[in-house]
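Sequence only, no structure available. Ideas?
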Amino acid sequence: MGYKNRVAVLGAGLTKFMRRAQETGKELCFEAARMALDSAGLELKDMEAVVMSTAPDAFDGVHMKGEYLADGAGGFRRPYMRSYVGGGSGVFSVIHGWYHVASGHFDTCLVVAEEKMSPCMPHPQAAFNAIYDQFTERPLGVNLLWIFALEMNRYMQVHKIPLETISLVSVKNKKNGLDHPCAQAGIPGEYTVKDIMDSEVLVWPVHRLMVSPVTDAAAAVVLVSERVAKRMTDKPVWVEGVGWHLDSSYWTNRDLYYPKYVEYAARMAYRMAVITDPRKEIHLAEVYDPFAYKELHHMEGLLLADKGEAPRLLEKGVTQRDGDLPVCPSGGLMGVGNPIAAAGLMKVAEVFWQLRGEAGARQVSRPVKRGLAQAWGDLMQVGTVVVLGV
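Reply:
I predicted one. Tokens follow.
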């Protein structure tokens, strides 16, 4: 893939994850953008372009949400674009910003992602009913939990995975989340497998403590060209690879045990980053985990484990913060919260902080030179991947 500029992440910002009745989405964008700019040592006037990522307009309860959030995100009087691919939006926003800078059109780009889900009543799930086929699916009362329960059950059945093993993802990530200063109150904690298994069954086999919560938050990163990066810092974090893939929306025509859309996105990013053995060349991964099983499902799609092997790696402790391949050392969505678009950008920010050695109590115990952030969206069809390295 040819491009003009090498691109670096220079700074990142993240707001507290919580349900907010007071702050607007604009204010959340401003707070995250301000933190990212401060950490990069730059001002808004230094940003030549702004990319905004935010999921369905219904989540904030406003029409044309990209335009509504523009001034809060710093998009006034400069090139400004909104990208949206469902839950994959946060990672895709970095890909979008990467193109702005890599193309040579801009030397700096501020990337902001926001979600204010709590005002969506009675629940954000209600916004999704309209995406299903109005004749064959919608009359069934389909929601995302319903769909993901089917996928989780298929994944478990094909590979003979016990529900207790799936619960270990919740145990791991909720414990990791205890060290995250932005974690949503009541989400992280010291849980046992029994605690997870004893929580309410929402749609079999999905239990309440296997699902990430409704959250309001914003995240931001500053992307710059190599020329600016070398002037501003002696420890740049480079965007080494980007990848994305859109599979068919006809989920009923696919075998849900394996996420091909993630594999195709990962292969694209690996080719760009010249990665031939991701299990050895990726040192940590922030995998998208809105449901506990999804971390394992996506690890296999990312080629970090053979099909059906991810649960065994989890059981052996390989994916722990001090393991050979730390996965979601931040706590992920299960341990911190899930503000859709902002959750994906959080994962990019977490890899950035890990590679800089600035993750605080979340810092993995082994040296890391390359990390991966991944997100997924829509009806089990969108894969987005970013590889960062030093």
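DSSP finds 15 helices and eleven strands in the chain.
Hope that gets you unstuck.
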